[in-house]
Amino acid sequence: MTVTIKDIAKAANVSYSTVSKALNDSPLVKTGTKRVIVEKAKELGYTPNFSAKHLVTRRSNTIGLVWPTIERAALSELVTHVNKQISKNGRSMILSINDALEAVELFSRMRIDGILLFEEDIAQDELPNNLGIPLLSYGVPGINQFPTLGVQHELAMELAVNELVEKGHREIVYVGIHNGIGRRQQAKQAGFEQAMKERGFGSKIVNTGGLNAGDAEHAVTQFLDSEGTPEAIICSSYDLTIGTLRALKRHQLSIPNDVSVISYDNIPQLKETEVPVTSVGVPIDALACALVEMLIDLIEKGEENVENRKLSPVLVKRKSVKIRN
User: Fold this and answer.
1) Among 62, 105, 128, 276, fewest CB within 10 Å belongs to which?
2) Same domain flag for 146 and 158
3) Percent of the chain predicted with pLDDT > 70
4) Are residues 43 and 139 located together in one domain of the fold?
Protein backbone atom coordinates (compact mmCIF):
# COMPACT_ATOMS: atom_id res chain seq x y z
CA MET A 1 0.00 0.00 0.00
CA THR A 2 1.25 3.49 -0.88
CA VAL A 3 2.05 5.67 2.12
CA THR A 4 0.64 9.21 1.87
CA ILE A 5 1.19 12.40 3.86
CA LYS A 6 -2.16 11.66 5.54
CA ASP A 7 -0.64 8.51 7.02
CA ILE A 8 2.37 10.47 8.25
CA ALA A 9 0.14 13.19 9.71
CA LYS A 10 -1.84 10.58 11.64
CA ALA A 11 1.31 8.87 12.94
CA ALA A 12 2.90 12.17 13.99
CA ASN A 13 -0.37 13.63 15.29
CA VAL A 14 -0.06 16.80 13.18
CA SER A 15 -2.00 18.35 10.30
CA TYR A 16 -1.56 17.43 6.63
CA SER A 17 -0.24 20.90 5.84
CA THR A 18 2.38 20.65 8.58
CA VAL A 19 3.65 17.38 7.10
CA SER A 20 3.79 18.90 3.63
CA LYS A 21 5.73 21.92 4.88
CA ALA A 22 8.11 19.78 6.94
CA LEU A 23 8.94 17.44 4.04
CA ASN A 24 9.68 20.50 1.91
CA ASP A 25 12.00 21.81 4.65
CA SER A 26 9.86 24.88 5.34
CA PRO A 27 11.20 27.27 8.00
CA LEU A 28 7.61 27.66 9.21
CA VAL A 29 7.83 24.26 10.96
CA LYS A 30 9.72 24.00 14.25
CA THR A 31 12.93 21.97 14.11
CA GLY A 32 11.72 19.40 16.64
CA THR A 33 8.39 18.87 14.86
CA LYS A 34 10.16 18.61 11.53
CA ARG A 35 12.52 15.95 12.92
CA VAL A 36 9.59 13.84 14.21
CA ILE A 37 7.77 14.07 10.87
CA VAL A 38 10.85 13.09 8.86
CA GLU A 39 11.50 10.12 11.17
CA LYS A 40 7.87 8.97 10.86
CA ALA A 41 8.08 9.28 7.07
CA LYS A 42 11.18 7.05 7.05
CA GLU A 43 9.57 4.50 9.39
CA LEU A 44 6.50 4.25 7.18
CA GLY A 45 8.57 4.01 3.98
CA TYR A 46 7.15 7.19 2.46
CA THR A 47 8.15 7.92 -1.14
CA PRO A 48 7.37 11.41 -2.52
CA ASN A 49 4.97 11.55 -5.45
CA PHE A 50 7.04 13.67 -7.83
CA SER A 51 4.30 13.82 -10.45
CA ALA A 52 1.86 15.30 -7.97
CA LYS A 53 4.50 17.65 -6.62
CA HIS A 54 5.27 18.85 -10.14
CA LEU A 55 1.60 19.70 -10.70
CA VAL A 56 1.68 21.96 -7.63
CA THR A 57 5.16 23.52 -7.87
CA ARG A 58 5.63 23.37 -11.66
CA ARG A 59 9.13 22.07 -10.86
CA SER A 60 10.55 18.58 -11.18
CA ASN A 61 13.96 19.44 -9.67
CA THR A 62 15.45 17.57 -12.61
CA ILE A 63 18.08 18.75 -15.09
CA GLY A 64 18.63 17.14 -18.50
CA LEU A 65 22.14 16.92 -19.97
CA VAL A 66 22.52 16.55 -23.73
CA TRP A 67 26.03 15.15 -24.17
CA PRO A 68 27.85 13.94 -27.31
CA THR A 69 29.56 10.95 -25.64
CA ILE A 70 30.92 9.63 -22.36
CA GLU A 71 33.75 7.74 -24.06
CA ARG A 72 36.11 10.72 -24.07
CA ALA A 73 37.81 11.16 -20.70
CA ALA A 74 37.45 14.95 -20.46
CA LEU A 75 33.70 14.80 -21.17
CA SER A 76 33.21 11.95 -18.71
CA GLU A 77 35.11 13.92 -16.04
CA LEU A 78 33.04 17.03 -16.70
CA VAL A 79 29.76 15.09 -16.48
CA THR A 80 30.83 13.71 -13.11
CA HIS A 81 31.56 17.18 -11.74
CA VAL A 82 28.35 18.63 -13.21
CA ASN A 83 26.35 15.85 -11.56
CA LYS A 84 27.95 16.63 -8.20
CA GLN A 85 27.08 20.31 -8.54
CA ILE A 86 23.49 19.52 -9.53
CA SER A 87 23.14 17.22 -6.50
CA LYS A 88 24.55 19.92 -4.22
CA ASN A 89 21.75 22.16 -5.46
CA GLY A 90 19.09 19.63 -4.49
CA ARG A 91 18.34 18.48 -8.03
CA SER A 92 18.70 15.28 -10.04
CA MET A 93 20.32 14.78 -13.43
CA ILE A 94 19.24 12.82 -16.49
CA LEU A 95 21.98 12.22 -19.08
CA SER A 96 21.34 11.57 -22.76
CA ILE A 97 23.99 10.72 -25.36
CA ASN A 98 21.41 10.27 -28.10
CA ASP A 99 21.20 12.57 -31.11
CA ALA A 100 21.15 16.10 -29.70
CA LEU A 101 17.94 17.16 -31.42
CA GLU A 102 16.12 14.01 -30.30
CA ALA A 103 17.40 14.41 -26.73
CA VAL A 104 16.29 18.05 -26.50
CA GLU A 105 12.84 17.19 -27.83
CA LEU A 106 12.53 14.31 -25.35
CA PHE A 107 13.51 16.48 -22.38
CA SER A 108 11.10 19.14 -23.58
CA ARG A 109 8.23 16.64 -23.56
CA MET A 110 9.26 15.44 -20.08
CA ARG A 111 8.84 19.01 -18.79
CA ILE A 112 12.04 18.93 -16.76
CA ASP A 113 13.28 22.18 -15.21
CA GLY A 114 16.15 22.91 -17.57
CA ILE A 115 18.50 21.54 -20.23
CA LEU A 116 22.29 21.77 -20.48
CA LEU A 117 23.41 21.25 -24.08
CA PHE A 118 27.01 20.39 -24.94
CA GLU A 119 27.16 22.12 -28.30
CA GLU A 120 29.36 19.97 -30.52
CA ASP A 121 27.74 18.11 -33.42
CA ILE A 122 24.77 20.46 -33.59
CA ALA A 123 24.71 24.25 -33.41
CA GLN A 124 22.10 25.76 -31.10
CA ASP A 125 20.30 27.53 -33.95
CA GLU A 126 19.40 24.10 -35.37
CA LEU A 127 17.14 23.54 -32.36
CA PRO A 128 13.47 24.61 -32.14
CA ASN A 129 13.00 28.22 -31.04
CA ASN A 130 10.19 27.61 -28.56
CA LEU A 131 11.17 24.74 -26.29
CA GLY A 132 9.17 26.03 -23.36
CA ILE A 133 12.06 24.98 -21.09
CA PRO A 134 15.21 26.93 -20.18
CA LEU A 135 18.24 25.73 -22.17
CA LEU A 136 21.88 26.62 -21.56
CA SER A 137 24.42 25.88 -24.27
CA TYR A 138 27.98 25.00 -23.32
CA GLY A 139 29.59 26.25 -26.50
CA VAL A 140 30.85 29.43 -28.11
CA PRO A 141 28.78 32.61 -27.61
CA GLY A 142 27.80 34.21 -30.89
CA ILE A 143 24.65 32.56 -32.24
CA ASN A 144 22.72 33.61 -29.12
CA GLN A 145 19.55 31.68 -29.81
CA PHE A 146 19.95 30.41 -26.26
CA PRO A 147 22.09 31.66 -23.36
CA THR A 148 25.62 30.33 -23.73
CA LEU A 149 28.57 29.68 -21.45
CA GLY A 150 31.93 29.21 -23.12
CA VAL A 151 35.67 29.38 -22.61
CA GLN A 152 38.08 31.89 -24.10
CA HIS A 153 39.59 29.25 -26.38
CA GLU A 154 41.64 31.80 -28.32
CA LEU A 155 43.23 32.97 -25.07
CA ALA A 156 43.93 29.36 -24.12
CA MET A 157 45.90 28.84 -27.34
CA GLU A 158 47.68 32.17 -26.82
CA LEU A 159 48.79 31.00 -23.37
CA ALA A 160 50.00 27.67 -24.76
CA VAL A 161 51.92 29.20 -27.67
CA ASN A 162 53.43 31.87 -25.44
CA GLU A 163 54.67 29.27 -22.95
CA LEU A 164 56.43 27.34 -25.71
CA VAL A 165 57.89 30.40 -27.42
CA GLU A 166 59.22 31.73 -24.12
CA LYS A 167 60.98 28.38 -23.68
CA GLY A 168 62.68 28.82 -27.07
CA HIS A 169 60.41 26.74 -29.33
CA ARG A 170 59.70 27.93 -32.85
CA GLU A 171 58.36 24.89 -34.74
CA ILE A 172 55.07 24.23 -32.99
CA VAL A 173 52.50 21.77 -34.34
CA TYR A 174 48.79 21.80 -33.50
CA VAL A 175 46.99 18.44 -33.18
CA GLY A 176 43.22 18.66 -33.68
CA ILE A 177 40.39 18.62 -36.20
CA HIS A 178 41.29 20.91 -39.10
CA ASN A 179 38.40 23.24 -39.96
CA GLY A 180 35.93 21.03 -38.08
CA ILE A 181 32.22 21.78 -37.84
CA GLY A 182 32.28 22.20 -34.06
CA ARG A 183 32.63 25.89 -33.13
CA ARG A 184 34.70 25.02 -30.05
CA GLN A 185 37.29 23.23 -32.19
CA GLN A 186 37.22 26.05 -34.74
CA ALA A 187 37.94 28.60 -32.00
CA LYS A 188 40.93 26.62 -30.73
CA GLN A 189 42.41 26.29 -34.21
CA ALA A 190 41.85 29.97 -34.93
CA GLY A 191 43.47 30.91 -31.63
CA PHE A 192 46.54 28.80 -32.41
CA GLU A 193 46.92 30.20 -35.93
CA GLN A 194 46.53 33.78 -34.70
CA ALA A 195 49.07 33.34 -31.91
CA MET A 196 51.61 31.88 -34.32
CA LYS A 197 50.97 34.57 -36.94
CA GLU A 198 51.46 37.38 -34.42
CA ARG A 199 54.91 35.98 -33.69
CA GLY A 200 55.83 35.62 -37.34
CA PHE A 201 55.67 31.81 -37.37
CA GLY A 202 53.86 29.53 -39.80
CA SER A 203 51.12 27.17 -38.58
CA LYS A 204 51.37 23.40 -38.94
CA ILE A 205 48.22 21.41 -38.21
CA VAL A 206 47.94 17.65 -37.82
CA ASN A 207 44.37 16.89 -38.81
CA THR A 208 43.03 14.10 -36.58
CA GLY A 209 39.64 13.97 -38.30
CA GLY A 210 38.10 12.98 -34.96
CA LEU A 211 38.39 13.57 -31.24
CA ASN A 212 39.30 10.12 -29.93
CA ALA A 213 42.77 9.02 -28.82
CA GLY A 214 42.99 6.60 -31.73
CA ASP A 215 42.40 9.43 -34.21
CA ALA A 216 45.37 11.35 -32.83
CA GLU A 217 47.63 8.31 -32.61
CA HIS A 218 47.07 7.52 -36.28
CA ALA A 219 47.40 11.12 -37.50
CA VAL A 220 50.49 11.95 -35.42
CA THR A 221 52.17 8.68 -36.44
CA GLN A 222 51.68 9.59 -40.09
CA PHE A 223 53.01 13.10 -39.47
CA LEU A 224 56.15 11.84 -37.73
CA ASP A 225 56.78 9.37 -40.53
CA SER A 226 56.48 12.00 -43.25
CA GLU A 227 57.49 15.29 -41.61
CA GLY A 228 59.90 14.27 -38.87
CA THR A 229 59.95 15.42 -35.23
CA PRO A 230 58.65 18.92 -34.37
CA GLU A 231 60.03 20.93 -31.48
CA ALA A 232 56.68 21.13 -29.71
CA ILE A 233 53.07 19.98 -29.96
CA ILE A 234 49.83 21.55 -28.71
CA CYS A 235 46.91 19.10 -28.51
CA SER A 236 43.35 20.38 -28.59
CA SER A 237 42.01 17.93 -25.97
CA TYR A 238 43.01 15.39 -23.36
CA ASP A 239 42.04 12.40 -25.49
CA LEU A 240 44.04 13.69 -28.45
CA THR A 241 46.95 14.19 -26.08
CA ILE A 242 46.83 10.53 -25.03
CA GLY A 243 46.88 9.45 -28.67
CA THR A 244 49.76 11.83 -29.37
CA LEU A 245 51.78 10.43 -26.44
CA ARG A 246 51.29 6.91 -27.79
CA ALA A 247 52.54 7.94 -31.23
CA LEU A 248 55.60 9.66 -29.75
CA LYS A 249 56.38 6.62 -27.62
CA ARG A 250 56.08 4.35 -30.66
CA HIS A 251 58.71 6.50 -32.36
CA GLN A 252 60.88 6.27 -29.22
CA LEU A 253 60.69 10.04 -28.70
CA SER A 254 61.17 11.35 -25.17
CA ILE A 255 59.01 14.04 -23.54
CA PRO A 256 60.17 16.75 -23.07
CA ASN A 257 63.75 16.02 -24.20
CA ASP A 258 62.79 15.36 -27.83
CA VAL A 259 59.36 17.02 -27.98
CA SER A 260 57.56 19.43 -25.64
CA VAL A 261 53.80 18.86 -25.27
CA ILE A 262 50.93 21.02 -24.00
CA SER A 263 47.35 19.79 -23.76
CA TYR A 264 44.05 21.64 -23.77
CA ASP A 265 41.65 20.41 -21.02
CA ASN A 266 42.41 21.20 -17.42
CA ILE A 267 41.63 17.84 -15.85
CA PRO A 268 43.49 15.92 -13.10
CA GLN A 269 44.36 12.99 -15.40
CA LEU A 270 47.01 15.10 -17.15
CA LYS A 271 49.20 15.03 -14.07
CA GLU A 272 48.97 11.22 -13.97
CA THR A 273 50.54 10.47 -17.36
CA GLU A 274 54.05 8.96 -17.52
CA VAL A 275 55.37 12.50 -17.83
CA PRO A 276 52.89 14.95 -16.25
CA VAL A 277 51.61 17.16 -19.07
CA THR A 278 51.39 20.96 -18.97
CA SER A 279 47.77 21.91 -19.63
CA VAL A 280 45.64 24.93 -20.43
CA GLY A 281 41.94 25.50 -19.90
CA VAL A 282 39.39 26.19 -17.19
CA PRO A 283 39.78 23.85 -14.18
CA ILE A 284 37.15 21.16 -14.49
CA ASP A 285 35.53 21.82 -11.09
CA ALA A 286 35.27 25.56 -11.77
CA LEU A 287 33.75 24.88 -15.19
CA ALA A 288 31.14 22.50 -13.78
CA CYS A 289 30.25 24.96 -11.02
CA ALA A 290 29.82 27.81 -13.51
CA LEU A 291 27.63 25.71 -15.82
CA VAL A 292 25.27 24.60 -13.05
CA GLU A 293 25.08 28.04 -11.43
CA MET A 294 24.24 29.69 -14.75
CA LEU A 295 21.60 27.08 -15.61
CA ILE A 296 19.93 27.44 -12.21
CA ASP A 297 19.95 31.23 -12.61
CA LEU A 298 18.30 30.70 -15.98
CA ILE A 299 15.63 28.50 -14.41
CA GLU A 300 15.00 30.78 -11.42
CA LYS A 301 15.42 34.25 -12.93
CA GLY A 302 14.54 33.84 -16.61
CA GLU A 303 16.54 34.31 -19.80
CA GLU A 304 16.29 38.10 -19.77
CA ASN A 305 18.32 38.20 -16.52
CA VAL A 306 21.13 35.88 -17.64
CA GLU A 307 24.01 37.08 -19.82
CA ASN A 308 26.38 35.01 -21.95
CA ARG A 309 29.69 34.25 -20.27
CA LYS A 310 33.21 33.31 -21.34
CA LEU A 311 35.44 31.79 -18.68
CA SER A 312 39.16 32.57 -18.57
CA PRO A 313 41.56 29.64 -18.98
CA VAL A 314 44.70 29.13 -16.92
CA LEU A 315 48.01 27.45 -17.74
CA VAL A 316 49.13 24.69 -15.37
CA LYS A 317 52.85 24.02 -15.74
CA ARG A 318 54.08 20.45 -15.28
CA LYS A 319 57.02 18.50 -16.74
CA SER A 320 56.24 18.14 -20.45
CA VAL A 321 57.86 21.42 -21.62
CA LYS A 322 61.60 22.08 -21.58
CA ILE A 323 63.72 25.11 -22.22
CA ARG A 324 65.16 24.77 -25.72
CA ASN A 325 68.76 25.95 -26.18
Assistant:
1) 128
2) no
3) 96
4) no
